[in-house]
Amino acid sequence: MKKIQISPSILSADFSQLGSEIKKLEQGGADLIHVDVMDGHFVPNLTIGPPVIKNLRKYTNLPFDVHLMISPVHKYIENYAEAGADIITIHPEATENLKESINLIKRLGKKVGVSLNPKTEIKTLIDEIDSVDLVLVMSVNPGFGGQKFMPEVLDKIKELKKIKEENQYHFDIEVDGGINFSNSKIVLEAGANILVSGTTVFKENDGNIKANIEKLKSM
Ligand code: DX5
Ligand code: ZN
């Protein structure tokens, strides 16, 4: 069983102190840093882009798990690779050719993820699933932190785990949105091995990041 990894989302961090917030995540035991990139077009919110990621790179050696909620995405992939992303995750709806975008990310020497919104079915990526490093299952509709976990995605996680085991695929199953201390165990049992969390990591236990990450890992 792969060990549980926590990828805290900096969307819930203090955006005026992102560098020190990332340091706190590393010191708190985070395995990856989940960077939510939003363009106000693919999702109704706007966050950060390549210049900010480039400046944050020096604050940690942890992998930057960059979640691109932007469209069109293909022409911007190289900018995020150059800015210091380690994993680049895209939404199938945001590219005209998923296979080409996946191949571009791999050519740039980065790990590639594909994200499925709650309403997006596994068949959307099934032809490419053997070539991705990560499937990011959205358990909220993308755009904002602090939303409620959507339990209907548990079946999708179980199905992905079945496909992975039956075919000995290597992709990680990461779940993103509304993860907290009461649902993380059921999400892991369904087959996830990476949990994204913003609100729970930054806000629970009076903002004790280390305690919150450890508690999520102990599930
Ligand atoms: C939402 C983002 C998520 C979100 C998670 O569009 O992709 O990563 O920030 O935040 P919480 O854990 O607060 O739901
Ligand atoms: Zn995300």
Can you describe this structure?
With 219 residues, the protein is of the alpha/beta class. It has a single domain, classed as TIM Barrel (Alpha-Beta Barrel). Helix content is 33%, strand content 18%. The protein has an eight-stranded parallel β-sheet. The chain is globular. The two termini are 14 Å apart. The model has no long low-confidence stretch (mean pLDDT 97). The protein binds D-xylitol-5-phosphate and zinc ion. D-xylitol-5-phosphate (DX5) binds at residues 9, 11-12, 34, 36, 67, 140, 142-143, 145-147, 176-179, 196-200. D-xylitol-5-phosphate (DX5) is lined by residues 9, 11-12, 34, 36, 67, 140, 142-143, 145-147, 176-179, 196-200.
Secondary-structure topology with pairs:
Blueprint: E1 5-8, H1 18-27, E2 33-38, H2 50-56, E3 64-69, H3 77-83, E4 87-90, H4 98-107, E5 111-116, E6 134-138, H5 154-167, E7 172-176, H6 184-190, E8 194-197, H7 199-207, H8 209-217
Parallel strand pairs: 1-8, 2-3, 3-4, 4-5, 5-6, 6-7, 7-8
Helix pairs in contact: 2-3, 7-8
The structure holds D-xylitol-5-phosphate (DX5) and zinc ion.
SSE order: EHEHEHEHEEHEHEHH
Structural class: alpha/beta
What Rg is obtained from the alpha carbons, in whole angstroms? 16 Å
Task: Write down how many β-strands occur, each being a DSSP E stretch of 2 or more residues.
Answer: 8
Low-confidence stretches: none
Our measurement of the CA-to-CA distance between the termini, rounded to an integer number of angstroms, reads 14 Å
When the domains are counted, the total is 1
CATH superfamily: Aldolase class I
The main β sheet shows up as: 8 strands, parallel
Tell me the number of helical segments per DSSP (H or I, 4 or more residues long).
8
CATH domain class: Alpha Beta
